[in-house]
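Data card: per-record layout.
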Amino acid sequence: MSNDHITNIRSLLIKEGYPNDCHIVPLPFSGSNRLYYRVIFNEHINPQSIIASYNDYVSENIAHNSFTFHFRSLGFAVPEIYARDSSYKYFLIQDLGKTTLLDLLSSEKILAEKYYKKVISDLVKFQVIGIKDLDLDVAYPVKEFNQRSVMWDLNYFKYYFVKPHNIEFNENLLENDFIKFANILLSAEKKYFNYRDFQARNILIHGDQPWYIDFQGGRQGPLQYDLVSLLYQVKANLSDDIRSKLYSHYIDELNKIIPGKQVMFEKYYYNFVYFRLMQVMGAYGFRGIVQRKAHFLQSIPMAISALKKLLQEEPIFYDLKELSKVFKQIATLEYDIPNNISIELTINVNSFSFKKKGIPIDVTGNGGGHVFDCRSLPNPGRLVELRDYTGLDDQIINYLEGHDEINEFIINTKKIIDQSTENYIKRGFNNLQINFGCTGGRHRSVYSASKIGEYLMVKYPNIVVIIKHHELD
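The structure for this 473-residue chain is written out next.
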């Protein structure tokens, strides 16, 4: 399918008069289903590169196209659309480089803080000026921030974050709280442009100024949501001091264009902080837990930490008992997520249950590794006298090692793993995952993971080996 996209992009380039002598390089996947490619021309032309995009959702593309032309007519810094095909699925767009505001936060924090003020000034213009004469009839999927769209986000949070984490709640009472909470949010003034995903990852730094992307989900709505999205972005992790200064700057900029909105803005502000965090958690749950994307899974502990801090500093003021109960349980969740990448090879050896939690997600970003199925091996779990022991106990070890199938399985496994380990060391890779699964994740898989983990520690003393038994821990 990727080759089909590249072929179609080449056809569009030729049709629009661009030279055929170019490289088309796929860009890393983002949080959406859209695909992006960088087109680099070998000839000396201007521009030297452009971005090609593919998105199957035509209605979303129509919104993006319409909003782009409107914002550019107002002089807003959004990338130019050079061309599109007749299907409205392929676009050629201005290339603004790779540097996002989020990138600057991790490398040049002082410079990033300078840009934040400019970004906030631009946000007010998007919200107040950008809404004028904007064709909201093309907005996708809805044209306004309403009860239905709020409930979508709240249920997204429930189904993709709360339920997968086995949080206890009364579904009827939680739905009642969702309705109450939605009514609170909808009490805020809603006549401005709601960008929807106004965060540092969607702000590119090009030509010493910020440029804005990913606004195609915009609609008419409240002011608070977008400022919250920027200041409380989990990955950005802005300090309280910087957040306070930027908040004050926003109020000053807002007063320049529409004075007298501060009281209304502040009344609902922290409700939107909770709401945005819930929406983000839902996205992290779906992209991380369901779609198994490491980047989103790694963000979950930061989101939990942000919620914990918010509950301490700005507790919910309204009678939302079931939602509060859910928040308190989330705040106690613990995630074993690495905060940094080792400069040496780290091998994570896991045991797991195929029928319970399934194959462990690789949170390092390497994409996984070996998965060995231990269900063909003799099963001590079927014996009443061995059922309550685990693969770490002598009773299970002695039972398994008394069978030739086990010894043959371990010998063959070592050969396969040695090949990968030595190749990874030679190529300077940082992470490898090795998984052993059985029915319950307590006997055969635990024994195998422990045996291989210990073997790797002895044979390769310069690597890090981490053994984790997912049904025992």
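Known properties of this structure: Residues 338-342 have pLDDT under 50 and may be disordered. DSSP finds 14 helices and 13 strands in the chain.

See the next section for split statistics.
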